[in-house]
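Exercise 3.2. Students should predict the tertiary structure of the chain below and write it as C-alpha cells, then compare their answer with the key that follows.

Predict this chain's 3D structure.
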Amino acid sequence: MDTSSFADRDGFIWLNGKLVPWRDANIHVLTHGLHYASSVFEGERVYDGEIFKLQEHTDRLIESARILGFKIEQSADEINEACYQTVRANNIVDGYVRPIAWRGSEMMGVSAQSSRINLAVAAWVWPSYFSPEARMKGIRLKISPWRRPAPDTIPTQSKAAGLYMICTLSKHQAESEGYDDALMLDYRGQVAEATGANIFFVSNGVLHTPTPDCFLDGITRRTVIDLAKARGIEVVQRAIMPEEMAGFQECFLTGTAAEVTPVSSIGDYKFTPGEVCAALIKDYENCVRRKKAA
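Answer key:
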C-alpha cells in the first residue's frame, strides 16, 4: 500500500467528466461541502479488476444526494463508467474506489441552492482494512460514548460525510486506548454498528444483527445475510441491547472496507471467532472473486 499523502500521488482521478492528474484534482478552500458537509460518497472494492456490486453503490450514491437535496448531473451509467475509467487509468486489479459528490464554492453560507454539484472518483490499491494478524485473532472494540442519532435529527439513510464525524471521534479514542475500533450504540441505547461497518452476533448457530433503522443497511451486510441464508443459517434482524452481548458466542463486522472481520471483544464482552465466522469469510471471498462456494 502506498503510504504517501493522499494529496501527493501518481495516477489519475476522474473529476467532473474527465481524468486529471492526481495532484491536480483540487477544490477551493471555500467549497460548501467542506464547510457544511453537503457531500455524499461511496466506498467500493475492486477484486480481480471488477468493482463488486457497483450498480448498488451507484444507486445509493444517487439516492444519498437526493436525500441531501441535490442531484448528481451524471446518470448511473455515466457514474459506473467513470468508476471503471478510474480503475483502468490507475491499473487497479485489487483495490478501493471512492466516488464522491459535493456542493461547490459558488455560494458560501448555509443556503447554497445555486452551487455546482461536483463529482469525483478516485481509486487506489488498498489491502484489508484491518491487519491480517488482527483479523485472524479477532479485533478488539471499545464501546463509544457517541451514539448514532435518531432519523428525525439527521439523514441517517444517506451515506453523507457529516454522519462520519462522530465515527472519527469514536475510532480515534478507541485507537488511542489500544483498541482496533469502536462499537456505537444508537440514540435509544441499542447496539447499532461499528464506526464504518455493520455488526453481527452468533448465538447457538443463529445470526443476530441490529435492525438498520437509524444507520445504513450496508451492501456488504445484505450480501452476508444472503450468504448465510444460502447456508441454511437463520438470520434475525432485531433490536439488541448491550447486555445481550454476554450471551453471544461469535461476533463479526461487515463492510466494503472491513469485508468480514471477526471480533474477539467489545469492552468486557468476549467472543471466540468460530465456524460461522470462518464459513462466511470463505463464502464472501468466493462471492467477490466469483468462485463457487463450497
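Discussion points: The longest helix spans residues 54-67. The chain has seven helices and 16 strands.
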